[in-house]
């Protein structure tokens, strides 16, 4: 069997490079890309660095995704890429030019303004890591450390809400409620922590779970998507929420942003 050669996307930036890398990763998800890796070069400052990276890309047969706000580096990237036959994608350039052409203003040309290394940035990164670590009740210790704890039955938007709130710098954990599983001792009201119950209309939840089963290739007749099971779970969850005396949001046909806005208002009022 022929072994496929590893292919490389070079992400280059005069700041951190997160924007170009995010675009590259989003692109990879659209392809069978197990043999493609991303190699990131951040905080580029000199022309020699640009020349060396383009030469490397030419040697490996990769291409470049870049966010360079310094005009000299951006122009050199274009020139070197053309000279060596390397495809280079300017992630921010066209958007910045459209802004100039439309509004008649000019960029500050300061690398890293999108992700300024201030306290808010690090708080947001910490919150995102927290949401991933304590998603779906993986570790009950997260309920003690969280600012917001989301509880509800399966498929009531707990995970996407946790991620959305984390991007606002809010440490969020979540727990799926099931009648067969005892509540962890760590899940109880405490100062500085907001527990929020998420619920949904039974018929809407039935539709979502049925589609989920289809996606997984499972029969729609499974108990997970039966009206009786859904009614049982929702009644149990309501009892838990009432016992915790926590606010409840019906997320039926409600956008994630709208639900998050309600929670943020409760958290900071």
UniProtKB/TrEMBL annotation:
This is Putative pyruvate, phosphate dikinase regulatory protein. HAMAP family: PDRP. Belongs to the pyruvate, phosphate/water dikinase regulatory protein family. PDRP subfamily. InterPro entries: Kinase-pyrophosphorylase, PPDK_reg. Keywords: Kinase, Nucleotide-binding, Serine/threonine-protein kinase, Transferase. Coiled coil: none annotated. Pfam families: Kinase-PPPase (PF03618). It comes from Paenibacillus harenae. Its EC number is 2.7.11.32, 2.7.4.27. It catalyses: N(tele)-phospho-L-histidyl/O-phospho-L-threonyl-[pyruvate, phosphate dikinase] + phosphate + H(+) = N(tele)-phospho-L-histidyl/L-threonyl-[pyruvate, phosphate dikinase] + diphosphate; N(tele)-phospho-L-histidyl/L-threonyl-[pyruvate, phosphate dikinase] + ADP = N(tele)-phospho-L-histidyl/O-phospho-L-threonyl-[pyruvate, phosphate dikinase] + AMP + H(+). Bifunctional serine/threonine kinase and phosphorylase involved in the regulation of the pyruvate, phosphate dikinase (PPDK) by catalyzing its phosphorylation/dephosphorylation. PANTHER family: PYRUVATE, PHOSPHATE DIKINASE REGULATORY PROTEIN 1, CHLOROPLASTIC (PTHR31756).
């Amino acid at each position: 069997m022929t072994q496929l050669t590893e292919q490389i996307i070079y992400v280059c930036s005069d700041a951190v490079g997160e924007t170009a890398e995010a675009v590259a990763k989003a692109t990879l998800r659209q392809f069978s890309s197990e043999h493609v890796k991303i190699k990131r070069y951040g905080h580029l400052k000199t022309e020699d660095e640009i020349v060396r990276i383009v030469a490397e890309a030419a040697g490996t047969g990769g291409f470049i995704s870049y966010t360079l706000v310094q005009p000299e580096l951006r122009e050199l990237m274009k020139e070197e890429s053309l000279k060596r036959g390397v495809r280079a994608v300017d992630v921010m350039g066209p958007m910045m030019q459209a802004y100039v052409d439309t509004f008649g203003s000019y960029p500050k040309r300061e690398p890293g303004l999108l992700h300024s290394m201030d306290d808010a940035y690090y708080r947001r990164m910490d919150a995102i890591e927290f949401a991933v670590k304590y998603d779906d009740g993986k570790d009950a210790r997260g309920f003690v450390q969280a600012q917001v704890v989301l509880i509800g039955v399966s498929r009531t938007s707990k995970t996407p809400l946790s991620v959305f709130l984390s991007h606002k710098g809010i440490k969020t954990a979540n727990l799926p409620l099931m009648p067969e599983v005892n509540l962890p001792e760590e899940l109880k009201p405490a100062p500085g922590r907001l527990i929020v119950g998420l619920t949904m209309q039974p018929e809407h939840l039935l539709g979502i779970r049925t589609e989920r089963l289809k996606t997984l290739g499972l029969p729609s007749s499974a108990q997970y998507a039966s009206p009786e099971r859904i009614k049982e779970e929702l009644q149990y969850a309501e009892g838990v929420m009432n016992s915790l005396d926590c606010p409840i949001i019906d997320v039926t046909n409600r956008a994630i942003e709208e639900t998050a806005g309600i929670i943020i208002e409760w958290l900071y009022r």
